[in-house]
Amino acid sequence: MIDSASTLFGQPGAASFDTASLGLGDYYRALYSQVRNALRIAEPDSATVGVTSCVSGEGVSTVCQSVAIAAANQLRRPVLLLDAKESSRAPVGATAQAAGLFDILAGTAQPADCVRPGTARDVFVLSAGTPRAGNGCHFPAESFIELLAFLKKEFAFVLVDLPPCNELTSCLRIAGLLDGVLLVVEAERVRSQVVAHSRDHLFQAGARLIGVVLNKRRNHVPEWLYRRL
């Protein structure tokens, strides 16, 4: 079923990402491996993992794209990057005005019409599409559960780009429906109390928090000295 993704959604882009220039590599490959180990998922089983943050701008989309590419490179099978943010740009490889997740949930589009090849081999993207009227409080959970079941049959790994973890977004209503969640924290920006608050919100929502990613960490030791330590 997973191998049919190329047939259903088109051929993936032939060009690969330049992992060196994008800062990808061993870190994200190791992160992906740790995620699968934490979930105790054995191939060929699929998994759905959400990535969220305490506040906006902590690098969630970058982490999502990087892990998706690492997963595709390791699995050599189709991987999906799903944008679940109510108001966001379309992810890499998708058209800004393309129908997407919220159109599927509203019953006005089908997955085969919305999932598109990304610019990395074996990475596909499903953009947010057109947000429905209202906010995260009205998120259609049952429709999303059905969609996840379908996507897990078609893709080896589904990575969900979530909005920040608070009551004003759909994050808490989505997180508990996924196999696991990663919390991205920007180093030296977010206070520990805020991180703890977000963690508690996720637990209360029934989410399985499988790890915290410390992002944008700055090295205060000069590079020449760091290499000698």
Task: Please specify the SSE layout and strand pairing.
Elements: H1 5-9, H2 26-39, E1 48-53, H3 60-75, E2 79-83, H4 101-105, H5 111-114, E3 116-117, E4 123-126, H6 141-154, E5 157-161, H7 171-175, E6 180-186, H8 192-204, E7 209-215, H9 223-226
Parallel strand pairs: 1-5, 1-6, 2-4, 2-5, 6-7
Antiparallel strand pairs: 3-4
Could you characterize the architecture of this molecule?
35% of the residues lie in helices and 16% in strands. It has 229 residues and is of the alpha/beta class. Strands 3-4-2-5-1-6-7 form a seven-stranded mixed sheet, sandwiched between helices. It starts with a helix and ends with a helix. Residues 11-22 and 219-229 have low confidence and may be disordered.
Task: Please supply descriptive tags for the structure shown above.
229 residues, 9 helices, disordered C terminus
Shape call = globular
Measured by DSSP, the beta-strand proportion falls in: 15-25%
CATH topology: the name is: Rossmann fold
Radius of gyration: 17 Å
**Assigned CATH class:** Alpha Beta
User: If classified by CATH, what would the architecture be?
Assistant: 3-Layer(aba) Sandwich
- Number of discrete domains: 1
Distance between the termini: 50 Å
Number of strands: 7
- Spatial strand sequence of the major β-sheet: 3-4-2-5-1-6-7
Identify the CATH homologous superfamily: P-loop containing nucleotide triphosphate hydrolases
Query: What is the mean pLDDT?
Result: 78
- The topology string of helices and strands comes to HHEHEHHEEHEHEHEH
Count up the helices. Answer: 9
Structural class: alpha/beta
Task: Give the helix proportion (percent range).
Answer: 25-40%
